[in-house]
Amino acid sequence: MPSSEKKGVKMIKVIAVNAGSSSIKYKLYEMPEEKVIASGMVERIGHEDAIFKFKGGKEDKKDILPILDHAKGVELILKALESSGVVASLKEIAVVGHRVVQGGKYFAKSAYFTEENEEKIRELIPLDPLHAPAHLLGFHAFKEALPEAKAIAVFDTAFHRTMEEEDSIFPIPEEWTEKYDCRRYGAHGTSHQYLAEKAIHDYFHDKKDTRIITCHIGSGASLAAIRDGKCVATSMGLTPLGGVMMGTRSGDIDPSVLDYISTCTGKDVHEIYEILNRESGLLGVSGGLSNDTRDIEEAMKNGNPKALRAANLFARRIADYIGQYFVRLGGVDMIIFSAGIGENSETFRELILKRCQEALHLEIDWEKNISYNRKEGLISKPSSQIQVAIIPTDEEVMIARDCYKAWEGTL
Ligand code: AMP
Known about the structure:
Helix 11 crosses helix 13 (346-354). The chain has two domains: 4-155, 2-Layer Sandwich (Nucleotidyltransferase, domain 5), CATH 3.30.420; 205-395, 2-Layer Sandwich (Nucleotidyltransferase, domain 5). Strand 1 (3-6) and strand 2 form a beta hairpin. The protein contains 16 helices and 15 strands. The protein has helices spanning 70-83, 115-123, 132-145, 165-168, 174-178, 189-202, 256-265, 269-278, 281-285, 293-301, 305-329, 339-344, 346-354, 357-360, 366-371, 395-408, and strands at residues 3-6, 9-19, 24-31, 35-43, 47-56, 59-67, 93-100, 111-112, 150-155, 211-217, 221-227, 230-234, 334-338, 377-378, 387-390. The model has no long low-confidence stretch (mean pLDDT 96). The chain is globular and about 60 Å long. The strands form two sheets. Strands 1, 2, 3, 4, 5, 6, 7, 8 and 9 form a nine-stranded mixed sheet that branches. By secondary structure, the chain is α+β, with helices and mostly antiparallel strands. The structure holds adenosine monophosphate. The site of adenosine monophosphate has 11 residues, from helix 10 and helix 12. Adenosine monophosphate (AMP) binds at residues 218-219, 247, 292-294, 339-341, 344-345.
């Protein structure tokens, strides 16, 4: 039975799935309560020593075992849901929501995984060769195992589809834009939308005309300028390589770097593109020290100049985007920090805010910047015209909400 009743409200179970090339993250929810009843992760898919993590019911386990493909991973997840007693029958899972990074020009909101939509997602593989094939593997593995459940795709790019043309096309030949759809699609949209909706509801009491800058700063990082809950501009570009500097990604650079470095090193454009994706950002600027801000912070404390240089450049890039979005929105009511670095690093928040505070007249409570670390709350003083908040993001609950809408028929 896919639904049960609690105080007159129909309750269903839905699973939010994030399938990567060698991993599957999952959370099972009871909706509409948004209660997480199981969660976990399968890592190192394709290996004899893959990792299976499961938490639900009375179980909390981690096994190392061979998991050679996504189908096996899904089989183990579903088996664990039954054996732990989290579900009495797999038929209780009414909807499976799959995170899909690239929705390209096709998807401005979540969509059912119909054959037609699957074909469109497949067509978009060249825009996201890293994740799209894995999303499809995850979809097929769940479809095989749960044929009666509805399946939906929730796109990282969908929230950004409200951008106007001047915020979303590149100054390149028209043919590249029109024929090849080479445009800014952005990413992390589900997170930016969650943060904006939460802020508008919890901090602005659903007031109209809010202007918010969301800073999703984790190993991947992007900013969004959001007016009245709708995305106006975002920093990532055609792919998640664009925008601010990240853990291993360069973010925006002068495109002539490609030609120059190719001439200097003999590397072709694909090799350079890989280096800009995997060996640049904090990792590259710190001379290979680390892509992780925890290591960079540690090295800074020990006076490592390369770490300091990497951290300063990282903060500068984000502060510059905040300035740009202040102009784009014609002012700002709230700046939100979120994701791994935004939620956990008082040092990086301070480096960024110190670079904006004079121009934006920010009044930061530096003690709160420390005490609200890993929590939620305002770190600006009540007198600050622009509020600054830390809000932990929750992309999975957004997927679960859309699953519920799909079940209600209101997607
Ligand atoms: P995410 O991609 O959102 O999971 O963020 C992961 C990144 O957050 C890591 O690579 C670190 O750079 C950063 N991070 C996580 N925890 C901390 C922490 N306690 N202090 C500083 N940085 C952190």
